[in-house]
């Protein structure tokens, strides 16, 4: 007993001197498997859009607010200052941004890398490094690290899109820099939609792009993504992910955004996916359809417009109960980061025929 008291007192003395006892902490520092701070979670579309509409009444983009965006804070990250580091997961920030007709979100650039997925609305566009890029629902757009970008809406309806950046990662690494352009919008240097037109042939590229570059293609049109899914759908679906494709850089064959991966996934009618887990984390947006995902035994029911996250090393499986309609899921991931450090690993669920037993149903906030 005396030894225990003396040891506890010694630990306190170490702490006062900014030191630590490895013998008492080794199992917390070298864990048997990942102990992720973010937790499985789901945000309903109605909740996000309600708050975004309220922000529309309070904020004018370009006049007191650079961006009008509501971002997802994972409850497991919420105690981190500031703002849970903006973490939907420990590496990924995700938000829904809205631009009303006539508004301009001013140009800036940052070391965080960014991407957009257009959710709804017509008439929007962005400028990235001197190229004007149209926005259409289902389009995937990239803004690589340290590239100038601004957004505008020349249409007649509010446009909305999903943003995803590696904010938590860059903040943790202390490598975040930001710079503001001297004018509201950057100068246009090439014809509109330049990169998409150069790559509209699909699996061919201009010979000038034989040397790899960070972002030879800035816009991945929904019509081409859909063709990719339709072609894949002529075969048997992957048992875990259904029909899934990823967006790639045509000059390297690697992820379109060098630090954030992105995929579009189709779950056909009556698809019951098998469970697996992996080290990389995911942020999902339900583009079309409805269904549910089971994460560590908890059932998360989702429908069009919802968002949910899969943290590292969490068992998960996707289900589409519809007998007639596909479910389309857009997702982002930190797989490029995990692979760069050789951290990625995955495991298939072996029990109960590959399906988890549901022990609980998640109840989302519907305020």
What features would you describe in this structure?
- Strand 8 (124-128) and strand 9 form a beta hairpin.
- The strands form six sheets. The protein has a six-stranded antiparallel sheet with strand order 1-22-19-24-16-15. Strands 4-5-12-7-10-14 form a six-stranded antiparallel sheet.
- The radius of gyration is 22 Å and the shape is globular.
- The mean pLDDT is 96.
- It has a single domain (33-361), classed as Sandwich (Jelly Rolls), CATH 2.60.120.
- With 367 residues, it is an alpha+beta fold.
- It contains seven helices and 26 strands.
- The longest helix is centred in the N-terminal third of the chain and has 15 residues, at 2-16.
Molecular shape? globular
Structural class: alpha+beta
**Total of helices:** 7
By CATH, the topology is Jelly Rolls
Q: Major β-sheet, in short? A: 6 strands, antiparallel
Q: Rounded to an integer, what's the Rg over CA atoms?
A: 22 Å
Considering the chains and any ligands shown, give keywords for the structure.
7 helices
Show the helix and strand layout.
Blueprint: H1 2-16, H2 22-29, E1 41-43, H3 45-58, E2 60-61, E3 64-65, E4 69-71, E5 93-99, E6 104-110, E7 114-120, E8 124-128, E9 131-134, E10 140-143, E11 149-153, E12 159-165, H4 167-172, E13 178-180, H5 194-198, E14 219-220, H6 222-232, E15 243-246, E16 261-267, E17 271-272, E18 276-278, E19 282-288, E20 290-295, E21 298-303, E22 307-310, E23 316-320, E24 327-333, H7 335-340, E25 346-348, E26 360-361
Parallel strand pairs: 2-3, 21-26
Antiparallel strand pairs: 1-22, 4-5, 5-12, 6-11, 6-13, 7-10, 7-12, 8-9, 8-11, 10-14, 15-16, 16-24, 17-23, 18-25, 19-22, 19-24, 20-21, 20-23
